[in-house]
Every structure is written in C-alpha cells, then in structure tokens.
Amino acid sequence: MAATVPRTPAVKRRILNRDKLEADITGVAVRVFAECGYEGASIATIAEQAGLSKQNLMYYFPTKQALYERVLDGVLDDWLARMATLADPGQEPRDMLRAYIQAKLRFSREQPWASRVYAMEVIGGAQLYGQQIQSRVVPLLRKDIEVFERWIAQGRIGPINATHLLFAIWAMTQSYADFSAQMALVLNRKQLARKDFDDAEAMITHMVLAAVAITDTAPAPIAYDR
C-alpha cells in the first residue's frame, strides 16, 4: 500500500482557496440560473458577476452543465439534510412534523434562489438532473413513509396517504420561495417578512396536524396590509 503523502501548509491553503473560490462561483451561479434558467444563463455572465474571466471560471467548471449540476448538488444536499428530520422515529409525531415544516420554510426563507433553481429544473421535466433526484430523494422518501406507516400501525396518527401528505408539505412550504413575488404583491409589500413565514408555519402546521388527526391550537388570523 502506498504511503499517504502529508499535506503541507501550502497545499492546505491551495485547497482552502479553491474551495472558497468554487463556493463563490456557485453562490453567483445559483442566482443567475434562478433568474435566467439553464438555457438563458451563460458562463460569461456568471464569470463576470463572480469577478472572474470566463477562462478562469472554466478551469474550475469546464462546462455550464458541470456548474449547473454542482449548484443542484448543493441545493439537494441542503434540502435533504432538512428532510432527514422525519427519519427519526423516536420523536413524537407532533414535534417531528412541526420541526419538519419549520425546516422546510426556513429553507425557503434562507435559500430562495436555490429553491427556484430546483423548481425550474423539475418544472422543465428534470431533463438534466432527474437521475440524481430519483437516486437521492426516493430512498429518503421511502424511509419517511415507513415512519408514517409505523405511527399509523401504533395508533399514534390517523390513517393517511403519507406520500401525498409529504408532496403537499413540499408544495406549501416551497411556494414561499418560488412564488414569493406573487405573495408579496398580494400582501402589498416589496418582499415577504419574517412574520409572513411565522404565520405560514402556524397555518401549515395546523393543517398538517389536523390531517393526521392530531389536535393543535389554531393559529391567529393574519392581518393583511391595506
């Protein structure tokens, strides 16, 4: 077996610098892909906004598809980390569902560009990233469904189609990123505020707990701006 070559401080610095530069590039790219879509986005535009030459950017990401897939890898990593909340069967269903909804709404609030890029890929038929979505999302979804089925068998929640319940939670929470502009217009403001996400969390949690036959206090009515 070949001996492991120790990393010198200079090598470590280069790795850290590369990681930071790639993170800066993907941070710009996620916004450009969200605003322009995959077809409308260009490496030149992303490079310019990242403060790099096109050739320099392509040293790290040789093609637009490679950069796009890296962006979506990051989006899915974050999304699945929050989704994994349901995989712990030891918690109470009420607490777990509340934490799950809170995590999904936090993703919409903190990562709106990421949510929109993912949504646009799926709306377009997941032509470029469908295999990764299927291979990574489906196994975790099945684990979550098993948790619901165990709760149902134990009489801890009422009978429910867990797959479609999760689809509904995804749609309700992700809409606060993907359709935030429409919501802000309806609420007569420039953008959604933290209180809007808090109100959404209360309402969605109440609806979901009611759907699985867990009683919960109804949320206070929302006061719309005039």
TrEMBL record:
<dbReference type="Pfam" id="PF00440">
    <property type="entry name" value="TetR_N"/>
</dbReference>
<dbReference type="GO" id="GO:0003677">
    <property type="term" value="F:DNA binding"/>
</dbReference>
<dbReference type="GO" id="GO:0045892">
    <property type="term" value="P:negative regulation of DNA-templated transcription"/>
</dbReference>
<dbReference type="Pfam" id="PF08362">
    <property type="entry name" value="TetR_C_3"/>
</dbReference>
<feature type="domain" description="HTH tetR-type">
    <location>
        <begin position="19"/>
        <end position="79"/>
    </location>
</feature>
<dbReference type="InterPro" id="IPR036271">
    <property type="entry name" value="Tet_transcr_reg_TetR-rel_C_sf"/>
</dbReference>
<dbReference type="InterPro" id="IPR013573">
    <property type="entry name" value="Tscrpt_reg_YcdC_C"/>
</dbReference>
<protein>
    <submittedName>
        <fullName>TetR/AcrR family transcriptional regulator</fullName>
    </submittedName>
</protein>
<dbReference type="InterPro" id="IPR050109">
    <property type="entry name" value="HTH-type_TetR-like_transc_reg"/>
</dbReference>
<dbReference type="InterPro" id="IPR009057">
    <property type="entry name" value="Homeodomain-like_sf"/>
</dbReference>
<keyword id="KW-0238">DNA-binding</keyword>
<feature type="DNA-binding region" description="H-T-H motif">
    <location>
        <begin position="42"/>
        <end position="61"/>
    </location>
</feature>
<dbReference type="InterPro" id="IPR001647">
    <property type="entry name" value="HTH_TetR"/>
</dbReference>
